[in-house]
Amino acid sequence: MAAKVSPLAGKTVDPNSLVNVPRLVTAYFAGKPDPAVATERVAFGTSGHRGSSLNNAFNESHIVAVSQAVCDHRRAAGITGPLYIGIDTHALAEPALVSALEVFAANEIDVVIDERGGYTPTPVISHAILTHNRGRTDGLADGVVVTPSHNPPEDGGFKYNPPNGGPADTDITSAVEKAANAMLENGLKGIKRISYDRARKASCVHRRDYITPYVEDLANVVDMEAIRSSGVKLGIDPLGGAAVHYWQPIIERYKLDAKVVSDAVDPTFRFMTADWDGKVRMDCSSPYAMARLIGMRNDFDVAFANDTDADRHGIVTRSSGLMNPNHYLSVAIAYLFAHRPHWGRDAAIGKTAVSSAMIDRVASKIGRKVVETPVGFKWFVDGLIGGSFGFAGEESAGASFLRRDGSVWTTDKDGIILGLLAAEITAVSKADPGELYQRLTAELGAPFYARIDAAASPAQKALFKTLTAEKLGVKQLAGEPVTATLTKAPGNGQSIGGVKVTTANGWFAARPSGTEDVYKIYAESFVSADHLSKIQHEAQAALSAMFAAG
Length: 550
Fold this sequence. Notes:
Layout: H1 21-30, E1 44-45, E2 48-52, H2 60-77, E3 83-87, H3 93-106, E4 111-114, H4 122-133, E5 142-146, E6 155-161, H5 170-185, H6 196-201, E7 205-208, H7 211-217, H8 224-230, E8 234-237, H9 247-254, E9 258-260, H10 291-294, E10 302-306, E11 313-317, E12 321-322, H11 325-339, E13 348-352, H12 358-366, E14 370-373, H13 381-386, E15 389-394, E16 398-401, H14 415-429, H15 433-444, E17 448-455, H16 458-463, H17 469-472, E18 476-477, E19 480-481, E20 484-488, E21 495-502, E22 506-512, E23 518-525, H18 529-549
Parallel strand pairs: 3-4, 3-5, 4-7, 8-9, 8-10, 13-14, 13-15
Antiparallel strand pairs: 1-2, 2-6, 5-6, 10-11, 11-12, 15-16, 17-23, 18-19, 20-21, 21-22, 22-23
């Protein structure tokens, strides 16, 4: 990060700074968003609509409008099967579930919720959708997860997964967003809604055991027997998220030597250590947010954590502490393609344009194709469904992979199986993922990777939409000739929303933030830390010149 690390980072959160949950929930029901204000409209990013009720960005009005828009989309698309819905442990999840059920039940949508009134991880919803739809051509299921992922406690989130089980594509989210905002503008007219008491008792609202089917199917994607028989000692931290009630059933079902280091659930997340900026954020790839589990690294052979909806993973090893997500993805790819004989010979590796080039070097070593896409897990859905991707992952610690027989597991990120894979790798390889990464770098070279944020006005951010290689004009980068300047991902020809410049031993990519007045520069060098710094400096200089030229 370009910003200065807060002195509070990595420390237990100050009780005086915790979110006021009653005020937050009151604002959800009492706040009335103004659709004339951009920040108070429904806005679907890469992971659904997110925001806080404290600034009128996530209110009851938003959720009933989005829920009605989802109902209308289902009718237009001919989706008639059940809608699986899950929530995480953020304070706004329960209120949003109430609002959504009032609308779904009024529209007579067959809705499936957790039988215990508990929490349901994102990958479990994807797994449920795909399980229901397997072999079907009609009566297809879809789903909703009420979560803002790892965002701070004051945030809420609402994301839709169509029948393919993965994140909805922009054609769907754009239509839902447009329809929901039209309802906001028209005073919520056209929304069907009944009371929560009636909704709970409605014949179309069904309760289901989400935990058992998912837990019992895990042996078909991870070698659970290898983990059990090895006696590898595991540490698990759900970070107070939706996976909290899944880990003990997994441990008991597969007789693992594992300890859940904390099963606390508290909507203030007071048990967390502060992230880099002093805020509470359940980011399992952050060394500051993961300070508790990192401090226990010597107590376990390998340990892992998930973010609040369990679609991300954080891997902690004795040998290297918290692994950089890119490092673990590289190890996971090398291991899986060597230990999954039933995967197709042509099964490729899906990676985002801002993920480490170490993945490309591993792929070359094992003779597998890399398909590079823009940021967003939605680009991997078709490949995972069809089995043309054996593994797909993002630099932000999100990934999924095929079942052991080569068929689809989930088409959304699954932090639970990535944690269990670290256990399998340790059990089978007799070395933890950190040690295996060191072996890879000894053979393929050690990359230096970093992301920084730089200030950019809305007008400057808009320039990325018209950026071309000619406009950027970079011919050399840190002393090496440029081999490619890309504005579209080579794997699927889709816009990367910015630019990527590559050389033989380094690269940078730049994209504007969708929520802040900054742009993000991802960079990597296979030469040295100094070489990385040169790449970053020259990248910023080239982009500053572009801004100046308008």
